[in-house]
Amino acid sequence: MRRGFEQTIEGWWQSQDPRPLLIRGARRTGKTYAAEEVGRRLAGDGFVKLDFQTDLDLIAPLFGGPTSDVDAIMSRVADYKRVRLSKETAFVLFDEVQLCEHALNSLRFFSGSGWRICGTGSQLGVATRRRHLPFPSGVRQETMHPMTFEEFLWAVGEEQMADAIRSHALSLEPYPAHQEALRPVSPLPGCRRHARRRGRVRRALAKRQSNLALLAA
């Protein structure tokens, strides 16, 4: 499944930005999926994931020492994952990092260290209010939003349609396959939830088509 946000992660990796990347967003928006996809693709065997959601009791002790000693932290991470990690090739994912206060705080010390750390976090505002340690500075923060209609079209194999809709929206020209564009969003006719979603998408597309027609007149 392709997500547009993957380009943001790739850009961070390729630009050699010395700051850790912290991906914010609501739950179930695909933060972990996008980070894993890019991490495995770019770093290969150098990709490592720490899942604070499921393994908090096992992972939290890795950050039990001084959070400023990031090399010692990564040494413990390597021992825990039973892998060799190097600054040049590692892509380390701290998934749901807000669940471990010391891990979240450590991000500030990873900035400029040479280690490429990507964190994901849900409800970071709530976590911050309950914290005893300061929220990390020197971190690049990006927000990931739920799937767009364009990404939905990518997921169902309609890349050409997605490109065509975007092209016509930018050029303000009517889209001749407007009715055909409604078909990919109606795979489950017996489901009320999907029926409501189809209705919202249909109305949104109709409104856009009407606006484009008025602008083109």
TrEMBL record:
It holds the Pfam family AAA_14. Residues 19-153 form the AAA domain. InterPro entries: AAA_14, P-loop_NTPase. It comes from the Bacteria. PANTHER family: ATPASE (PTHR33295:SF7). This is AAA domain-containing protein.
